[in-house]
C-alpha cells in the first residue's frame, strides 16, 4: 500500500473521538486563508470552464512577470510546484543529483522516477542544520543536478547568499543544473530574504521553483511554476506532460492573487509576530528550535515521546519529521497560525506533557 508522507492529510480523520474538528498545523499555509479577491475570481471563472485552459498561461505569465520583474519567457506553470518537479525530472533525466538531508521529500521522489541516483549532503545539528562550505566539494563532474530548498523544508534555515552563489558557479563549472526552491521565501523577514532570479539571464543552468500554494493559501487550487532562461528546457517541459495541466480556475486565481498586495503585507506581519511567539513558547517548554525563518517552526523535543500522537488525540495535527532523511524521533514541524490557534496548540503541548508525567510515559 502507498504511504503518504506529507502534512495536510485532513481527510483520514476529520474529528477527534469526542467530536472536535481537527486543527491542521502539519501544512504550512498562509493563516489568513484565501484572499477575498481570489475567492471572487474563482467564482467568476466557473463560467469560463466550458473552454480548455490556455496551454501557455499567457495572461498569468504576463501578470507574474510584472510582479517579479522578470522576462515572461522565463516562466513555466504547472499543477502545483510538485507537478513542475516531476516535469523537470522527466525533461532533464539527470543521472546523479545532490540533495540536502533533511529536505522536501518530492525532490527525491521525482528524481527517482527517472532512475536518478541520489547523494545526500547531511545537515548537522551542531551547525543548526545550515549548509556549510564543504558542500562545494560534494559537487563533482558526476553531478548532474543540485537541489537547494531556500529556506529549507523542514528546518526553515536560509542558505548564506554568497555560498549559494558559489554553488551556482560550481554547478556551472561541472555542467550541472542548480534547482533552487524559493516557495517559502515570501515569508522570510525582509532583511534576510533574497531571490536568485536576478541571476537567471546569465545562468541557463539555474532553475527557480515557486508556488502560489503557501503564499496565497490555495493548495486545493494547485498552481506552481519555475523560472529558467533556457528556451530548450521550456520546450522539453511542455513536451513532458499534457498541455492543460493548469486549469482555468487556477490561472484566474493566480492573476487575482498577484493583485493582493495588502493581503501579502498583512500576512507577512502576522507571521513574523506569531513565529516569534511560537519560538519563545517552545523554548520555554525546553524545545530546541532551529532556523524557522519561514511560516513554520522546526524543533526538537525529546519528551514526551509520541508528541504527534498525543496532540492528535486533542485535535491538533503536527508534522513528525522522523521520516525525513537524517532525522529521527523527537523532531517536529508546526505551521505558524493565528494567535488563538497558536495559543491552543501550546496549551495542548503542555497538557500532553502533564498527562505523560501522570501516566508515567514521559
Give structural notes.
By secondary structure, this protein is α/β, with parallel strands linked by helices. The chain is 35% helix and 15% strand. The protein has ten helices and 13 strands. The strands form three sheets. It has a seven-stranded mixed β-sheet, sandwiched between helices. Strands 9-10-13-12 form a four-stranded antiparallel β-sheet, with helices on one face. A two-stranded parallel ribbon has the order 1-11. Strand 9 and strand 10 form a beta hairpin.
- Return the string of H and E elements: EHHEHEHEEHEEEHHHEEHEEEH
- Please state the average pLDDT score: 95
Low-pLDDT parts are none
Number of beta strands: 13
Distance between the termini: 33 Å
The biggest beta sheet, please?
Answer: 7 strands, mixed
Q: Please tell me how large the radius of gyration is.
A: 21 Å
Strand line-up in the sheet with most strands: 2-8-7-6-5-3-4
Shape: globular
Count of helical segments? 10
What is the percent of helical residues?
A: 25-40%
Structural class: alpha/beta
Q: What portion of the residues fall into strands of 2 or more residues?
A: 15-25%
Q: What keywords describe this structure?
A:
seven-stranded mixed beta sheet, single chain, 35% helix, 362 residues, 10 helices, four-stranded antiparallel beta sheet, alpha/beta
What's this, in brief?
By secondary structure, this protein is α/β, with parallel strands linked by helices.
Helix and strand layout, with pairings?
Layout (H helix, E strand, L loop, with lengths): L22 E2 L11 H10 L12 H11 L6 E4 L2 H12 L3 E6 L3 H8 L4 E6 L22 E5 L11 H13 L3 E5 L24 E6 L12 E4 L3 H9 L8 H10 L3 H24 L3 E3 L5 E5 L6 H7 L2 E2 L1 E2 L10 E5 L3 H21 L3
Helix pairs in contact: 1-7, 2-7, 3-4, 3-6, 8-10
Amino acid at each position: 500500500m502507498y504511504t503518504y508522507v506529507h502534512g495536510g492529510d485532513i481527510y483520514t480523520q476529520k474529528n477527534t473521538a469526542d467530536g472536535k474538528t481537527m486543527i491542521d498545523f502539519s501544512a504550512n499555509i498562509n493563516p489568513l486563508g484565501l484572499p477575498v479577491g481570489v475567492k471572487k475570481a474563482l467564482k467568476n471563472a466557473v463560467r469560463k470552464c466550458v473552454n480548455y485552459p490556455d496551454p501557455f498561461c499567457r495572461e498569468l505569465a504576463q501578470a507574474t512577470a510584472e510582479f517579479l520583474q522578470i522576462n515572461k519567457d522565463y516562466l513555466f506553470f504547472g499543477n502545483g510546484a510538485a507537478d513542475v518537479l516531476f516535469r523537470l525530472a522527466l525533461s532533464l533525466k539527470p543521472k546523479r543529483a545532490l540533495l540536502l538531508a533533511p529536505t522536501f521529500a518530492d525532490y527525491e521522489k521525482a528524481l527517482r522516477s527517472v532512475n536518478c541516483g541520489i547523494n545526500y549532503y547531511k545537515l548537522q545539528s551542531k551547525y543548526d542544520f545550515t549548509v556549510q562550505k564543504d558542500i562545494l566539494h560534494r559537487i563533482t563532474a558526476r553531478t548532474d543536478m543540485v537541489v537547494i530548498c531556500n529556506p529549507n523544508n523542514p528546518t526553515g534555515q536560509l542558505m548564506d547568499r554568497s555560498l549559494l552563489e558559489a554553488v551556482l558557479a560550481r554547478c556551472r563549472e561541472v555542467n550541472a543544473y542548480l534547482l533552487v526552491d524559493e516557495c517559502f521565501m515570501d515569508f522570510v523577514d525582509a532583511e534576510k530574504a533574497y531571490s536568485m532570479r536576478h541571476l537567471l539571464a546569465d545562468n541557463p543552468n539555474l532553475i527557480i521553483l515557486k508556488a502560489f500554494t503557501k503564499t496565497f493559501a490555495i493548495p486545493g487550487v494547485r498552481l506552481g511554476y519555475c523560472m529558467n532562461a533556457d528556451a530548450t528546457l521550456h520546450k522539453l517541459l511542455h513536451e513532458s506532460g499534457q498541455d492543460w495541466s493548469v486549469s482555468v480556475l487556477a490561472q484566474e486565481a493566480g492573476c487575482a492573487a498577484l493583485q493582493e498586495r495588502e493581503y501579502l503585507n498583512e500576512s507577512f506581519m502576522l507571521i513574523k509576530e506569531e513565529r516569534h511567539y511560537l519560538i519563545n513558547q517552545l523554548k520555554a517548554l525546553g524545545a530546541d528550535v532551529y532556523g524557522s525563518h519561514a511560516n513554520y517552526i522546526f524543533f526538537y523535543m525529546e519528551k514526551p515521546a509520541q508528541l504527534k500522537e498525543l496532540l492528535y488525540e486533542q485535535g491538533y495535527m503536527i508534522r513528525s519529521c522522523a521520516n525525513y532523511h537524517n532525522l529521527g524521533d523527537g523532531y517536529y514541524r508546526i505551521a505558524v497560525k493565528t494567535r488563538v490557534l497558536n495559543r491552543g496548540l501550546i496549551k495542548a503541548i503542555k497538557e500532553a506533557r502533564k498527562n505523560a508525567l501522570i501516566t508515567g510515559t514521559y
